[in-house]
Amino acid sequence: MMRLVFSDLRDHAATWIGALAVAVACGYIGGWVVSLQATAGSSTGALQKFLQNAASSVLLFSLIAAVAVLVSAANLTVSAQRRSYALWQLANVRPALVSAVVLVQLGVVAVLGAACGTLLAAATFEPLFPLVLGSREALAQAVPVADMARMPAVWVVTAAVFLCGGLKGARSAGRTPPLTALREPEPKRARVTWLRTLLFAGMLACTCWASLALNESPDFAMSWSVFVPILMVATLVPLAPLVFPALLGAWTSMVPQGRGSAWYLARHIARHALSSSTSIETPLMVGFGLVAGLFSAMACSVDYLERQGVADISTIGWAESFIMLGGPVLLCAVGAAVSVVMSSRSRTRDVALLVAAGARPATLMAAAGCEALVHAVTATLAGMACAVASTAVVANAFGVPLLGNLAFGEGLVVSLAGFVLVLAATLVPTWAALNRGAAVVLSAGE
C-alpha cells in the first residue's frame, strides 16, 4: 500500500502540490502561534500578557480560515483524483484499500507541509518579530523564542483537519463505481453532508448566543464584539456547497446573456465545476468576511464611544491588525490560488476540447479572466452578507445605526488581492494549454 501511496503522489505531484502549499501556510502560521507562546513564557508582567493575547488572537482568527481552506483543499484534491481512483478499482484494487490510500496520502502531505511550514516559521520568527511587532514600545524588551519542541503539535492538528476534511472524499473514492467516476468527473448538484449540517447547527447556536450575550452591557460588547465576525463566517462555511452555486447562478443570471462567448463560457464552467468553484470561493469569502466584519465591529465601538463623549479613542494599530488578520489573509490568498492550480489538468483538457470545437484563443483567454471575476464577485457577495449580519448584531448591542458603520473598503482589498491571484492562476494554465496541440492533449492518458 505504501508503494502505491508514494508512487501516486509522485506521478500526480501537480495536483498534490496545491494541498502541500496550503499545509505549509498552516504550518507557518501555527509555528508563529507556538513561538509567540514560547516568547510569552520567557517574559513577565504586562509583556507576557500581551504576547499571550497575541498568540491567542493569531490562533483564533486563523483557525476558521485554516479549517475552511484545509477542508476545501482536501476535498478538491480528492475530487481531482477521482479518475485515478476509478482506474485503481478497474485494476482490481479493493475499494477499502482505495479509501485507505487516499487518507494516508492526505496525512503524508499534511504532515510534510506542516513540518516545512514550522521550520520556515522557526527560521524567520526571530528576524521578523521586531519588524512586525516593533511598532509597540512595550515589545522592545521581548526576546523572541522559537520553540521547536512544540512544533509537532502543529503537524498533528494540521493532519487531523486534513483527514477530517478529506474523509468524505476518501469514502466516496472507494465506494463510487469505477465506470461512474470515469464518466462523470463532477457531481450534478451540490450536497451538504450530515457533518456539515451538525457544524452549521452548532455554529448557528453559538452565534445566536453571542448575539444575545452582547446585549448585556456595552462594556461586555466592547471586549467581545470582535469575535462576532468569526462566528458569522464560521456559520456560513458549512453551507458553502449549497450557498455558492445558488448565489453564483442568481447574480450571473442578472447579467445580460448577450455579452459574448467569453462570458457564456466562464459562467457555465464556474457553475459546472462545483468542487473547484466552492474551493476557490470559500477562502475569499472567509477573508472578506473576517476583515470587513472586524473593521465594521471596531467602527461600531468607536461610534458608540464618540456618542458617549469620549475624546481620546485609540484605534487598532499596525501590529494588532497584522496579528489578527495576517494569518487569515495569507491562508485565504494561498487557498484561493492553489484551488485553481490543483484543477489545472482538467482545465487543460477543457481548453483542448474547446479549441477542437472551434473556439478562438482570444475567447478562451477572455473566458478565463471572466471566470476569475465570477469567483471573486461570488465570494465577495457572500462575504458582504456575513459582514452585514455581524455588523448588525454588534451595532444593535451598542445602540448605533445598524448599517451605518460598514467597512467594505478593507474587505475589498482582500477580494482584489484574491482576484489577482485567481486571475493569474487561471490565465497561466489556459495559456499553457493553448500552446499545446489539442490532439496531443486529448489523446494523452494518465
TrEMBL record:
Q: Where in the cell is it found?
A: Cell membrane
* Membrane topology, from the record: Multi-pass membrane protein
The question of whether Electron transport is a record keyword is answered with no
Transmembrane portions of the chain? 12-34, 54-76, 97-123, 153-173, 194-214, 226-251, 316-341, 353-374, 380-400, 412-434
Which domain of life does the protein's organism represent?
Answer: Bacteria
- One GO CC term of this entry? plasma membrane
Primary place of residence?
membrane
Cite the entry's keywords alphabetically. Cell membrane, Membrane, Transmembrane, Transmembrane helix
Instruction: Tell me the InterPro entries matching this sequence.
Output: ABC3_permease_C
Q: Where is the ABC3 transporter permease C-terminal domain?
A: 329-436
Which PROSITE patterns does the entry mention?
Answer: PROKAR_LIPOPROTEIN
Q: What is this protein called?
A: ABC transporter permease
- Species name: Gordonibacter massiliensis
Organism classification, top ranks? Bacteria, Bacillati, Actinomycetota, Coriobacteriia, Eggerthellales
